[in-house]
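Work Package 3 (structural annotation) set out to generate three-dimensional models for the target panel prioritized at the project kickoff. During this period the team completed the workflow that converts sequence records into discrete structure tokens, so that structures can be stored uniformly alongside our sequence database. As a representative example, we reproduce one entry of 157 residues exactly as it appears in the project archive.
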Amino acid sequence: MHLSDKILRDLTIITGVLVIAFLLFSKFDVLEVLVDFTQAHEEYELDELISTLIVFALCMLVFSWRRLKEADSARLIAQLKSIELQQAIAEIKTLQGVIPTCCYCHKIRDDKGAWRDLQAYINTHLDAEFSHAACPDCVELRLKELAQENPGGPEAD
């Protein structure tokens, strides 16, 4: 049971008690009996006590109403935050499943069927950036290729 449901239940009970009190007071003229009794027994200060209880009941009604509004506002804010969170989760970029790649140029086919560069594809699906370097095996291979392309080296010129 939500807080606002509890507050609404409490307000319903208070309203019911007030209606029953009104019906009883009107049937038995309780106020007139109380006035006569308080005048006869002024030393008990019953008229002040009754007035204070009436003000207390009204304050409780106002505070309960305010709590109900605060609970509704908090629930609305929580619902909005939940929607925002669900939208953020939906927007999170992930790579999942099978990624079709070209066996020759290593381009990746996206969900629209377009072939894209590996780096561009990953940049759009992950929050990552590429930095470039050459591994030792590729450096050695490239140096061999360069030596074959230019057999005499720089001194041959």
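The two ends are 89 Å apart (CA to CA).
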